[in-house]
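lol ok so funny story. i was supposed to be doing the assay writeup but got distracted and ended up predicting the structure for this chain instead. priorities right. anyway since i did it might as well share w the group, maybe its usefull for someone
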Amino acid sequence: MPIQESTVEKTYDRMARLLDGIVPDFELKVKAELVFEIQRLKRERRAIILGHNYMEPALYHTVPDVVGDSLELARRAAETDAEVIVFCGVRFMAETAKILNPSRTVLLPSAKAGCSLAESITAEDVRALRRRFPGVPVVTYINTYADVKAECDVCCTSSNAAWVVESLGSEQVIMIPDEYLAGNVARETGKRIIFPSRTPDQVQDADLQVELIGWQGRCEVHEAFTVDDVRRVREQFPDVVVLAHPECSPQVVRAADYSGSTSQMINFVRDSRAGRYLLLTECAMGDNIAAENPGKEMVRLCSIRCPHMNEITLEETRDALLKGQYPIEVDEAVRVRAKRSLDRMLEIGRPPRAAMRPAS
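and the output, tada:
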């Protein structure tokens, strides 16, 4: 829940209770003033703040009205009646909110909050794949820009990727752009996969022997984790429970104890009785989970901060509300086509808990 106190001092007191041992006290005193101002501006602007799970703790636990993974935030963006949506995430997320809410103002606090994975593919790349594999449905990870979504049949997130692929009932599916997510979906569903971008001149007949056609894009955070990271941590902490995001390589996911979206990992830690965890994902989320689960230890041996998520700060969030920066615009023709892909994803939803599988 967002912090809404009547004075800066009360705001600081609540933040200190929640984030003790997570954020230094001197930093909390400065940030309490920002949080108090943001809450005031939010009420004045009739705004809602959506916060991704990768936001730093002093922001994540104070100003968002909704926090979650990409699927949850997409759902809430589609439902809101707020006049202004401030998206504390990266650009493709804010674009998604604008696609679903064309008449509302959507603000991204930083103009620099991009995504290495979203940059790995273009709309023309998708059109080329369609020409090469005519009639094959295209599933795109939500971590793509609007023009790419517009060229696809349905979106997915890390929490429902395999569910979406299987729901299509197609002999072949193109899945873009995350190489590792597609590889993990192939492993989970038992499908054979190729990556034609690696060998663009390969014999076409070989393509007919596979069910999943992937793309060679990667997240710069998740591709950094290795099986050796898991091995070293297990050697030092034999009781550790290892959680890997599906954007990690299939080898890393196989070495983990559980794989799921950011929200699924949060729920896993909350519901588990284990005392020690290693999260193979963006490291700010470990701090956020630690604040909510003070009796559980997050092992800090694989800490990698996303430079794009790190662009979103309390200062930038305040300025977005104060100055109306930076508004997201999506070409209407692109928006209408991209919305079809998002609507289909939202209709499919998440798999039931019984369909979710552990990593090993």
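The chain has 15 helices and 13 strands. The CA atoms of residues 145 and 341 lie 12 Å apart.
back to the writeup now i swear
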